[in-house]
């Protein structure tokens, strides 16, 4: 898969994982596991990039005597998910065109 396409997909998956509630690294990895395997290093690179782009915010809170970082999607992050849904319609159309060639 094209690296840029995969990067965009991973970004949106992470945003979708925190869309309904704030979450932390380990839980995000666990929540994404049914659709994609992510290493911690990959996830934290994505989270840092998304934070830098203003698509999520981060806060620290104590949990069992340790600080844990919680990630929260911003309005811009929610808009990015909606943009992705619109863009994906075009990707599906391209995919269907390519697959049509195989059927002939």
Structure description:
This protein is of the alpha+beta class and 104 residues long. The chain has a single domain (3-103), classed as Winged helix-like DNA-binding domain superfamily/Winged helix DNA-binding domain (Arc Repressor Mutant, subunit A). Helix content is 62%, strand content 15%. It has a two-stranded antiparallel sheet with strand order 1-2. It starts with a helix and ends with a helix. The model has no long low-confidence stretch (mean pLDDT 92).
Task: Just name the CATH architecture.
Answer: Orthogonal Bundle
How much of the polypeptide forms β-strand, as a percent range? 15-25%
Q: Please indicate the count of domains.
A: 1
Q: How helical, in percent, are the residues?
A: 55-70%
Report, as a whole number of angstroms, the end-to-end distance: 25 Å
H/E series: HHHEEH
Gist of the model:
With 104 residues, the chain is an alpha+beta fold. The chain has helices spanning 3-17, 25-32, 40-52, 75-103; strands at residues 56-63, 66-73. Strand 1 (56-63) and strand 2 form a beta hairpin.
Key terms:
single chain; 104 residues; alpha+beta; Arc Repressor Mutant, subunit A; two-stranded antiparallel sheet; 4 helices; 2 strands
Present the secondary structure layout.
Layout: H1 3-17, H2 25-32, H3 40-52, E1 56-63, E2 66-73, H4 75-103
Antiparallel strand pairs: 1-2
């Amino acid at each position: 898969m094209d690296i840029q396409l995969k990067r965009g997909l991973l970004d949106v998956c992470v945003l979708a994982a925190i869309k309904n509630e704030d979450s932390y690294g380990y839980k995000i990895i666990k929540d994404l596991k049914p659709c994609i395997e992510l290493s911690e290093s990959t996830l934290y690179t994505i989270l840092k990039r998304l934070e830098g782009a203003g698509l999520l915010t981060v806060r620290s809170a104590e949990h069992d005597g340790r600080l844990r970082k919680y990630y929260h999607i911003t309005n811009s992050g929610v808009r990015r998910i909606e943009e992705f849904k619109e863009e994906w319609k075009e990707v599906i159309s391209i995919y269907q065109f390519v697959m049509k060639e195989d059927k002939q």
